[in-house]
Amino acid sequence: xxxxxxxxxxxxxxxxxxxxxxxxxxxxxxxxxxxxxxxxxxxxxxxxxxxxxxxxxxxxxxxxxxxxxxxxxxxxxxxxxxxxxxxxxxxxxxxxxxxxxxxxxxxxxxxxxxxxxxxxxxxxxxxxxxxxxxxxxxxxxxxxxxxxxxxxxxxxxxxxxxxxxxxxxxxxxxxxxxxxxxxxxxxxxxxxxxxxxxxxxxxxxxxxxxxxxxxxxxxxxxxxxx
Length: 226
Hints:
alpha+beta, six-stranded antiparallel β-sheet, 10 strands, globular
């Protein structure tokens, strides 16, 4: 029901994840990212706690591949889970339990990992990685969206996707990008539209938190500006 891509930008160190599914509000359950740590997915028959556990292990110094292996070996009902992670150093890990639904696959490169279940084609995760790697000078958000769109073009899920989301972390203690489309006929298109609106404003919203006296004005009716 889900395909996802987690990645690290080699140029900036930013980490992020995109995910899409036929189920509603997929990013609320499956996408996890933490500043200075990494990004992770807990999907298939989802246990959101496992995404947090993966990031806790990585934050404590466990490389992504070993964190995934440890959670897969110790979590209750792990055979029903599909897990991925990328850490702050670009290491990746992936796991698909024996009860992962339908056609499923994972793919890993340095700084990126993709996975999916109930897929229309085995090539979906590899297509996502290839798109993510195409332009390493681009913003990680553009690269993640390119990967998600490539996964859809490669076949995506067996059925239509209905929700999608993106999380990106930089140096701040919070995700600098947190976008979701929880139910739509074209959720990946809508997520891309949201990204195009958000991208030019993202740095300004960070500045409003860190130094509001010098931050750009909101540019809305009633705001006097500066």
